[in-house]
Amino acid sequence: MKRALFVIAALSLSATVAVAAEPAPGGGPRVACKADVEKLCQGVQRGHGQIAACLKQNEAQVSEGCKAAIASAKQKRSKQQPATTPQG
Fold this sequence. Notes:
Elements: H1 2-21, H2 28-32, H3 34-40, H4 50-57, H5 64-80
């Protein structure tokens, strides 16, 4: 009985930690990648995709949370764009 309670408590705790590690909804890459930008892209001028290019250039060092936020934002953007059909 005690072992079952321990397992349930451990699973609940690990689920809570996993949720806490995710970026806040609506925060997006700007929030999730802030530390990565400060660490990897110091001195990079903002605008014209330069920060995104810097993060891509340093992809191996970018945190998993930042990568996930970027992927999520790309997925949302692709769903929001209307499908284009060739006209002929």
